[in-house]
From TrEMBL:
Organism per entry: Commensalibacter nepenthis
Identification of the protein by name: Carbohydrate porin
Keywords: Membrane, Transmembrane, Transmembrane helix
Pfam family, one: OprB
Family of the protein in this entry: Belongs to the OprB family.
Key word Transmembrane helix present: yes
Length: 482
């Protein structure tokens, strides 16, 4: 078994190494000589951009036509330009994710899921003169099916991150919060119907991948009750202190409630607190880097969170002892540009690394690691295309594995064709660890339009070693920003 695991690990390593070598090679040959020359004027322009909002720019690439920038709005650009004078901004997007198992897993098949999001942001300083105050709201339409459940057979990781919230609803209220900035934006106070995941352990690169292993936080962190991720929202508040231009510290307090009865319910409009079991208190320190004359930007996030709720331990769920305990989490997240492709602010080769740790007595993950690469602007002729690679490895708590063994040894579960029914954590077998791999290529089609072919590989499906064969998944993602 050990040799088999090592063999699979090597296969994935060789695939990832080949991808990295290939796209780094393409990057090297795609750059014209102009990119290698020192240019003080362009350096000054980069520095200026690092002080402003992340806007499209063609500083050193005349082919970077804004009309093909997928981060721009397809239809609402003119409307929002007009509304901005009145302090109003509208957003509308349609994200689709299709994933299908072509080999291994539970069985072959394809599922589709989508999210339609409408948002409205209001700057009350422009509207009524309330300095530094704004409100933000988003409503979602979520539909489709879960390919991991139907075909991969994985109870831990969704092949389509868009289905990670578990909702299939015509209307779901995602968030509605107020933001007050004070002391020349030195302090930010955010409060209302919000989620922890909108504020903590947040990476600008997290959702450039379709596996929920990294979007929008490392999966181990967002899978616990207190750390409410998209699209579940709770009552909460956070205070952020910007220590300097590049560093900050923030602390929050949020309602801790379970999915279904809490987090706003299926529609997101149940704002009562009857389902609350305690409070979740996160803290985080962040640093935004900007190294050298090429302005290699990046970030680091270091944080922790404690849930005051008490949860039944894994041993208690198996034996009925009634033992309960708190849960806590820790995370370290890094994203750093290591090579600049051109003078557009975010165009370069980034390395991404994450670590998340959870309390082993009550959490369904123990440790989770992500390591990956994202390359933007590597092809001069197609400046808005990007390529992404991500490897994920995670372990489940030993207490969870022992509790599942106890259930099997004492005849507390059913078994059909090697698949167990009734095991805690919804597992098809005894869980230990798993490794996942994703490679994708984002193609800029037009202003506001991006399509992304995706390859995914599940080793030790659902963190079990002999339940299902390793699953190979092909997917397709589209994103339209109207």
């Amino acid at each position: 078994m050990a040799n088999k695991i090592i063999q699979h690990s090597r296969i994935i390593f060789y695939i990832s190494t080949s991808f990295v070598t290939a796209f780094c090679g393409i990057s090297a040959f795609a750059k014209p000589e102009l990119h290698r020359k020192e240019n003080k004027q362009l350096d000054q322009l980069i520095h200026k951009r690092d002080d402003t909002a992340n806007q499209p720019s063609a500083l050193n690439n005349p082919e970077a036509d804004p009309d093909i920038n997928p981060s721009q709005e397809l239809l609402l650009g003119g409307v929002n330009k007009y509304l901005d004078q009145y302090g109003i901004q509208l957003g509308l997007s349609w994200l689709t994710e299709t994933a299908g198992v072509i080999n291994g897993g539970k069985k072959k098949g394809v599922d589709y899921a989508h999210q339609i999001a409408f948002s409205i942001d209001m700057d009350w300083e422009k509207i009524i003169g309330w300095k530094g105050f704004s409100t933000h709201a988003m409503v979602l339409n979520l539909a489709g099916r879960n390919a991991s459940k139907d075909y991969v057979g994985d109870s831990q990781i969704q092949a389509q991150e868009i289905y990670g919230g578990g909702y299939d609803r015509v209307l779901h209220m995602n968030y509605f919060y107020g933001l007050q900035k004070l002391w020349d934006d030195k302090v930010e106070i955010r409060f209302g119907r919000d989620s922890v995941g909108n504020n903590f352990a947040l990476s600008p690169f997290a959702c450039q991948f379709m596996l929920i292993a990294t979007c929008g936080q490392p999966r181990s962190i967002q899978s616990q009750q207190g750390f409410s991720p998209w699209p579940g929202t709770v009552w909460g508040a956070q205070i952020k202190y910007n220590i300097s231009k590049s560093t900050y510290f923030k602390v929050g307090a949020y309602e801790s409630s379970p999915w279904g009865t809490g987090k706003g319910g299926p529609t997101g409009l149940k704002w009562g607190v009857k389902a609350a079991t305690g409070a979740y208190v996160p803290v985080e320190f962040g640093y935004n880097s900007n190294f050298g004359k090429n302005h290699l930007n990046g970030y680091i996030r270091i944080g922790a969170g404690l849930d005051t709720s008490k949860f039944e331990t894994w041993s208690s769920k198996a034996t009925g002892s009634g033992k309960r305990d708190h849960t806590s989490q820790y995370w370290v997240m890094l994203g750093q540009m290591i090579y600049r492709n051109d003078q557009v602010k975010d165009h370069g080769l980034y390395v991404i690394a994450n670590w998340g740790h959870d309390s082993p007595l009550t959490a369904n993950y123990k440790d989770l690691y992500n390591i990956g690469f994202l390359d933007r602007g590597f092809w001069h002729a197609r400046p808005y295309d990007q390529i992404g690679l991500m490897m994920t490895y995670y372990t489940v708590p030993r207490g969870l594995s022992r509790a599942q063994e106890y259930q099997i040894n004492n005849g507390l579960v059913t078994q059909t064709n090697g698949i167990f029914g009734g095991l805690i954590n919804g597992a098809p077998g005894i869980q230990t660890n798993s490794m996942l791999f994703e490679a994708n290529y984002s193609i800029a089609v037009y202003r506001g339009v991006m399509i992304m072919p995706v390859f995914e590989y599940f080793h030790n499906v659902a963190a079990t070693r002999s339940t299902y064969k390793d699953a190979t998944v092909l997917g397709f993602r589209t994103n339209i920003i109207f």
